[in-house]
C-alpha cells in the first residue's frame, strides 16, 4: 500500500513539474503572469517566485510591477526566507514610497526581524533590530492598526533581552566572579528600571557583594561588608514594600556583625 502511495506521489510531482516547465518556457508573458498569480494563490510559492523573478525586468516601470513586487516579496516570506524577504519589503517601500501598501511593507520588514529573533542564549542582533524598526513604525504611523501588535512585539523583545542579560549576570555569580556579578546585576537594573523584577535584581547585587566580601582578604573585609550595608540601605529606600525585605535584612545583620567582629579584633590587636 505504501509503495502505491509513493508511486502516486512521485507521479503527481512529476506532472506538476512538467506543467511548470511548460509555463516557464512560454514566451507569452501575460500567460506567465496569470500562472504566477495562480501559483501564488494556491500557495505554491516556489513556482510563483521563479516566474515573478523572470518577469521582473519585463514588467519594471509598468502598471503591473507593483503587484508583482508585492507578491514576490511575500513568496520569500512564506517560504521562510526571512533575510531575502526583509530586503524585498524594504525595496518595495523604496520603489513605491507613496503606495497604499507601503505601510504594510514597512511593518513586514520589521516583522521579518522578529521572525529571525533566536533563543535567549543566542546573539540578539535581530531582536534589537526588530525592536528598533517596530518603534520606528509606531513613530511614523501613529494611527496604524498594527501599532498594538508592534508594541507587543517590542515588549516581548525587551523581555528577551532582559532575560539574556539576567542569565549573563547569573553566570558570573555561578562562576564565583562575585564582583563582576554585582556590576552586571546593577547594570541590569539600570537598563530596565521599570522591570517588575527590579527588587530581585537588587537582592542579587547584595548577594554578590556579600559573597565578594566573605571571600576577601582580611584587610578588605570591612570595606566590602560596608558596601553590602550600603546596598541593603538602598534596597530599603527603594523597595519598602518588597517581599524580599527579610532576606535583605539578614544580609544587613550578618554584615553589621562581621564589621563589629573586625573592629573588636582590631582593638584586641592594637592592645
Radius of gyration, in angstroms, nearest whole number: 30 Å
Q: Helix coverage percent of residues?
A: over 70%
Number of helices: 12
Question: Which structural class fits the helix and strand makeup?
Answer: mainly alpha
Which CATH class of one domain is shown? Mainly Alpha
Protein name: Outer membrane protein assembly factor BamD
Organism: Flavihumibacter fluminis
Pfam families: YfiO (PF13525)
Keywords: Cell outer membrane, Membrane, Signal
Give the key terms.
271 residues, mainly alpha, Serine Threonine Protein Phosphatase 5, Tetratricopeptide repeat, 12 helices, 0% strand, BamD, cell outer membrane, BamD-like
Fold and architecture overview:
With 271 residues, this protein is mainly alpha-helical. It has a domain at 176-271: Tetratricopeptide repeat domain (Serine Threonine Protein Phosphatase 5, Tetratricopeptide repeat, Alpha Horseshoe). The chain has helices at residues 2-25, 29-41, 45-59, 65-78, 82-95, 102-115, 125-140, 147-174, 178-191, 198-214, 218-238, 245-270. α2 packs antiparallel against α3 and α5 (82-95) packs antiparallel against α6 (102-115). 27% of the residues are buried. It comes from Flavihumibacter fluminis. This is Outer membrane protein assembly factor BamD. InterPro entries: BamD (IPR017689), BamD-like (IPR039565), TPR-like_helical_dom_sf (IPR011990).
Amino acid at each position: 500500500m505504501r509503495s502505491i502511495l509513493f508511486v502516486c506521489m512521485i507521479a503527481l510531482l512529476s506532472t506538476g513539474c512538467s506543467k511548470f516547465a511548460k509555463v516557464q518556457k512560454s514566451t507569452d508573458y501575460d500567460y506567465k503572469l496569470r500562472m504566477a498569480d495562480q501559483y501564488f494563490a494556491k500557495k505554491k510559492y516556489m513556482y510563483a517566485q521563479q516566474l515573478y523573478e523572470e518577469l521582473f525586468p519585463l514588467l519594471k516601470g509598468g502598471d503591473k510591477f507593483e503587484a508583482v513586487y508585492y507578491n514576490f516579496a511575500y513568496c520569500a516570506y512564506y517560504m521562510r526566507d526571512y533575510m531575502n524577504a526583509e530586503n524585498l519589503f524594504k525595496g518595495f517601500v523604496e520603489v513605491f514610497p507613496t503606495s497604499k501598501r507601503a505601510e504594510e511593507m514597512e511593518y513586514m520588514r520589521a516583522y521579518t526581524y522578529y521572525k529571525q529573533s533566536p533563543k535567549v542564549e543566542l546573539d540578539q542582533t535581530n531582536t534589537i533590530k526588530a525592536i528598533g524598526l517596530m518603534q520606528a513604525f509606531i513613530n511614523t504611523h501613529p494611527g496604524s492598526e498594527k501599532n498594538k501588535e508592534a508594541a507587543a512585539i517590542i515588549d516581548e523583545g525587551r523581555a528577551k533581552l532582559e532575560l539574556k542579560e539576567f542569565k549573563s549576570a547569573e553566570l558570573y555569580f555561578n562562576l564565583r566572579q562575585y564582583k563582576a556579578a554585582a556590576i552586571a546585576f546593577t547594570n541590569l537594573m539600570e537598563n530596565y528600571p521599570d522591570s517588575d523584577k527590579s527588587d530581585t535584581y537588587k537582592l542579587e547585587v547584595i548577594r554578590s557583594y556579600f559573597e565578594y566580601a566573605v571571600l576577601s582578604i582580611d584587610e578588605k573585609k570591612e570595606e566590602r561588608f560596608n558596601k553590602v550595608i550600603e546596598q541593603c540601605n538602598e534596597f530599603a529606600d527603594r523597595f519598602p514594600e518588597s517581599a524580599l525585605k527579610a532576606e535583605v535584612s539578614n544580609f544587613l545583620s550578618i554584615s553589621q556583625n562581621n564589621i563589629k567582629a573586625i573592629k573588636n579584633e582590631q582593638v584586641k590587636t592594637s592592645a
